[in-house]
Amino acid sequence: MDKYPKSIKKCIQLVTISNDCFLFSRQKLQNSLSIAFALWEPSKSPYKDVFILKNGDVRSELGFGRKQKILYVQIARPIFINKKGHCRYWDYDFPKKLYLEFINLKNKRDLLKIPFFCVFPNHSEMEDLFRAYKKADDDIDPEFPVAFGYEIPKPLLANKDKNQKTVVPINIDFIWKKKKELESIVRAYADKKLDYHKLLWLNKQMENVSDSLIDPQNFLWKRIEAGTSMENVKDDRKMEEVVGMKNIKDLMIVNSHRVYGHFAYCCLELYLDILREKRIFSCDNCGQYNYASKHSDRTLCTERENKDCWLDQQSDRGKKSRNKK
Fold first, then answer.
1. pLDDT at position 136 over 90
2. Domain extent for 296
3. Which of 261, 277, 293 is the last residue of a domain?
4. Which residues contact 221 (CB under 8 A, 6 or more apart)?
5. Which pLDDT score is estimated for 169?
6. What CA–CA distance (Å, rounded) separates 109 from 118?
7. Parallel, antiparallel, or unpaired for β 144-148 and 209-214?
8. What's the rounded Cα separation, in Å, for the pair 118 and 36?
9. β-pairing, 68-72 with 144-148?
10. Residue 35 is inside which H or E element, if any?
11. C-alpha–C-alpha distance, residues 27 and 33, integer Å
C-alpha cells in the first residue's frame, strides 16, 4: 500500500544539471537544452549525457570507440518518469510526493537519498552563486574536462578536482536554502496561513514547468513501463521511428510535463495538491510533514509514514497507561 497518492498523473521529462559544475539558470541554458532534447528521446541513446560548452554548443559521446576531448561548463541529463513513477533508474521509483520527502530531510547528507537532485537557479540566484564561487576561489575555472578514448592530462584533472571541491559545497548549501524556502510555504499551507501573495512565489517556480507531447508507446516509454533496463535490449525500430519521422496519425500522442530540475518537480506537486485541496499536516510528535485525507483530523505519523515516530508514540502511550495505574 502506498504511503501517499501520487500528485502528478502524467509522464514527466525531467531535465537535470550537475551539482559538480557551476549552476546556471534555465533561461541561460535554454538554447542548449532545446538542442539536447533532439539528442535524447527520439534517438538510439535517449539517456546520454549532454555536455554544454562555454559558448552554448552541446556535445555528447559519439560512440563506436571514437576519440573525443570536451571542455564543458555543465552536464545535462534526462530522467524520463512514467505515470506510475517508474524512471530510467530501475532500482529507483519517484516518491508519490517528492516535495514531502524533500522537506522532511534532516540534514544535507540525506540529499543523496534523491539521485541527482538539482535546482535551476533564477537569474539573481545565479549571480549570487557566481559571486560565492569567486569569493571561495578567485582563480576558479568554470570549464571541466572529459575525454573518451584519451587520457586526460593530470594538470586538467587536478584543476577539475579543485574546482569541484570549491563548487559542490556552495551548490549543496544553495539546494538546502531552497529546501527551507519550500518548507516555509508548505508549513504555511499546512497551518492554513498561506497568504495569496505567496502564490506569486509558487507561480515563479512554475516557469520551469511546461507541457509537452509524447508517444507513451515508443521504445523508451515501453521499457520504463516494463521496468526493464535498456542495456542489451534489442531495438528493432526502423530509422524513421528512431529519428521521429513516423506520422503522428499512427501514434498515441498524450500530454506530458517537461520539468527543469527536481525543485521545480516538487513545486509542481505542491501546485497540484493546492488545486486539489489536499491536506498536509506536521506531526505533533516529530514534526514530519505528511499527507492526510481531506476530512481526516489526525495529527500524528502512522507506522507506515515514520516507524521511529510511531514507536515513540507507542512508548509514550505505554508510560501514560502505567502512570494511571
1. yes
2. 279-325
3. 277
4. 11, 80, 82, 214, 215
5. 96
6. 14
7. unpaired
8. 18
9. antiparallel
10. helix 26-38
11. 10
Order of strands across the sheet that contains 58-60: 58-60, 50-52, 74-81, 12-17, 254-260, 209-214
- Quick one: cell of 239? 530509422
Angle ∠(113,115,118) on CA atoms, nearest 5 = 110
Give the single-character DSSP code of 110: G
Q: Which residue's C-alpha cell is 505528511?
A: 290
Mean pLDDT score, 71-81? 94
The verdict on 288 and 199 lying in the same domain is no
Clarify whether residues 105 and 34 are in a common domain: yes
β-bridge mates for residue 292, sequence order:
279
Is the pLDDT at 1 greater than 50? The verdict is no
Sequence letter at residue 287? G
Q: Tell me if 86 sits within 8 A of 61, measured CB to CB.
A: no
Look at residues 174, 71, 197 and name the one whose alpha carbon lies nearest to residue 121: 174
Same domain, 323 and 183: no
Mapped onto helix, strand or coil, the DSSP state of residue 4 is: coil
265 and 155 in a common domain:
yes
Q: 8-12, 55-59, 233-237, 267-271: lowest mean pLDDT where?
A: 233-237
Hunting for cell 512554475 — which residue is that? Answer: 206
Q: State the average pLDDT over residues 227-236.
A: 58
Give the cell for residue 118: 538539482
pLDDT for the residue 166 = 93
Map residue 120 onto helix, strand or coil. coil
